[in-house]
Amino acid sequence: MTQPVTTSVKPKLSFWQIWNMSFGFLGIQFGFALQGGFMSRIFQTLGAEKDAIPILWIAAPLTGLIVQPIVGYLSDRTWHPTLGRRRPFFLIGAVLSSIALFFAPYSSALWMAVGALWILDASINISMEPFRALVADKLPDSQRSYGFVVQTLIIGVGTWAASNLPWLMTQLGVPNTAAPGVIPDSVKFAFAVGAGVLFFSILYTILTTKEYPPENLAAFEKDKKETEGFLHGFKEIFTQIVTMPKVMVQLGVVQFFSWFAFFILWSFATPAITEHIFKATDTASAAYNDAADKVGNYLGTYGLVSMLYALILAFITSKIKINRRAFHMFGLFCGALGFSSIYIVENHENLHYSFALVGIAWASILSMPYAMLSSAVPAKKMGIYMGIFNMFIVIPQIIAAVGGINFTYKFLFGEATINTMLLAGLSLAVAAVANLFISSKAAILDGYIDPSLEEKT
Q1: What is the pTM of this model?
Q2: Which of 7, 408, 428, 449 is the most buried (most CB within 10 A)?
């Protein structure tokens, strides 16, 4: 039987143990990459106008805003003798996500595609938040940066592979064109493969990873019984939101502008690049669908580079303690340059260089903020804090979806759709500068132990 492990004596884990506990993120990222890279293509195929695309995406961030704090709260209070604390949510999310991902490209009307996106994002969120908390649950503080970087490495593999799936299906002879208003078979096949990868990769983590039980299981169960009920849960989530630690607010500003930029990418990369660089606007034409496949290929580049950059970070963080704030600033400035350079690209092959810089930012966004947060908040509330931290991811996406993108890029840069990439670059530059306001040593310095935090934990 697994013995309770206190937060102060957690054993260091090997690379492969950390790999196993994070492997399910491969499937989660297959879901997110297919959703992020190709839902706008599906919306356009089903008749959506370019300016309407952001509002059609609003289902995704709204779902995350509601689901993640609730899942975080519930997973903090869960203990199953076989599945543990976080893994029950992995399993539920895996089943629902794989079903939703498989059926999303079979939408025959725009409202069906929007509904499919809503269900898909809610389902993925059920699994995703506990994966963040699991790294903090299992690893000592000295391995937090390393753990989140390994997770990012797996995410990079998933982003690259999933983004290239429709292109690969086309190379294998699957048609990438269809009648007007019909999703091409290459996209349908890609989503089907993604659904399989999503389910089995999460199942792999469930089967290969054990969790530490609460340090005092009897007290844990007693406290859970005394605080049951929807009203208490709502009150607890609300209380933690209004009293969140200062470091969470500081990191939240960085996250706000980071995710605003990437929501622009997911919403507008396909229409902006197919129109500006490939001069293709007819969604039923071979020219447009070939261009859209290539955009997916370039999106895969940022996933591939994020994987390679995460490998470098994994080596560095396994050997030395780093200044997380400085590393994150560097990554975000690289992404700002990458987005801005898309505007001046003439030869589409050069987009690989632009998206390579975006990939460095993506690797940093998926690792450094979570490493900083997990080292600066109490461990026993890690799930709910990770869920609440997601607010700083979804709120900028909601603002972007209800008009923030359309108004801002047109006001600052002009009507051309490619100007959305300039806005994304500006947003990442602001995020980079906002790092200067992060003041917690526990967040900034890898391996720093805050004595007051230890007492709370």
Answers
A1: 0.74
A2: 428
